[in-house]
Amino acid sequence: MNSSPGDRNTAAVTTEPRSGRARRFTAELREQETVKPLELYFDLVFVLGFTQCTALMSANPSWTSVGQGMLVLAVLWWAWAAYAWLTSVIDPEEGAVRVAFFGAMAAMLIVALCVPKAFDDRALAFAIAYGVVRIGHLALYVIASRDDPSLRRSVLNIAVSAPIAVGLLVAASALDGLAQGALWVIAIAFDMLGPAFFGLEGWRLMPAHFAERHNLVIILALGESIVALGIGAEISLDAGVITAAVLGIALASAVWWAYFDVVAIVTKLRLERAPEGRERNALARDSYSYLHWPMVAGIILIAFGLEFTISHYDDPLDSVHRFALLGGTAIYLLAHVVLRLRNAGTVNVQRLVLALVLLALCPFGLGLASLAVLAGVNILFWAVIGYETIQIYDERRYQLRHGLPVEPPTRTG
């Protein structure tokens, strides 16, 4: 059987013997690119976390709550991304790793339960539970890297930044207001920028698996939009609610199309074709760990805006919910623009223009009912999708989607 690029990528890493009692107590390397059931099960606690972010913002809609929701989402995202890197090296279903993942899920569940009060009376519990999640991740990585000095050095490097981040969150639990928010920002910066400053050469990943994990988390975030529509429609089911629900699913579908029609495929191809080592690792970090974060943030903001819209379809959107709906869509699109700029050195002009238009409209209420605003976003978004599908992607799109030989656009500039 031929080995995949991911198999070759991890060939240098060895673990304990695969037979006998020893295999039960150590980590085994991943041998297949396919995402395993335990990984999908593991993601369910993050689904709850995403839902709780929306709940935090919806409980008392304000600019402060939106800021807090985005800070919490950043912490949740980085925890998820850390385990995505880990499971691209080790098999989460083999040996004691399976039990360790159950433990991480338990800690992550506590994190998710604390989210609505993460800046209040559950701040300390949130920080401690998050610390357990991160320590569990580092411990599993240490086991997985025992026979790979280069990977071990990379793991030990982030073992410096992650505990500092957790410590800052613990310290922030004793504060409130701007001081608390500032410590959260610093903690997130320490956690996220650790891999950028401590080198990339030692990390390992299986490209197809890594890409699929991030594709699935976009689906999970979109699920929050569907949940928000259901929550918003709990009061009644009249013609206005039905119309808002249809427009809401249309917007979620546009978000799905914009990513999965071409972008996800091209990004995966680029990762698979990138040379092993520093170049591939940098591409994975930037394209997935960093740039998928604002995509997810945009989707969660859209969900927050949809929840209000479907239950107040006759009312104008206030500034906070208007930003959530328009600005969330814009943030999502801008992440796509930067992703293409990072990978191809070119700019997706139509998505950039749409994002800037939506941001420019955020300050203006214009007295429009929220249903009309949602309809307008749909019209603009679907117009861009139609233009791209017919005028730009054309034959290349067909080749990409049907697995025919095609080279991604060469990087220029």
Description:
With 413 residues, this protein is mainly α. Helix 13 packs antiparallel against helix 14. The longest helix has 32 residues, at 370-401. The protein is globular, with a radius of gyration of 22 Å. It has two domains: 1-204, no CATH class; 206-413, I/LWEQ domain. It has 15 helices and no strands. The protein starts with a helix and ends in a 12-residue tail after the last helix.
The helix fraction, in percent, is over 70%
Biggest beta-sheet profile = none
Top-tier CATH class of the largest domain: Mainly Alpha
Task: Give the helices and strands as they follow along the chain.
Answer: HHHHHHHHHHHHHHH
Approximate strand percentage: under 5%
Furnish the topology, listing elements before pairings.
Elements: H1 5-9, H2 37-59, H3 63-86, H4 97-114, H5 123-144, H6 149-172, H7 177-197, H8 207-232, H9 239-260, H10 263-273, H11 278-290, H12 292-311, H13 319-344, H14 349-361, H15 370-401
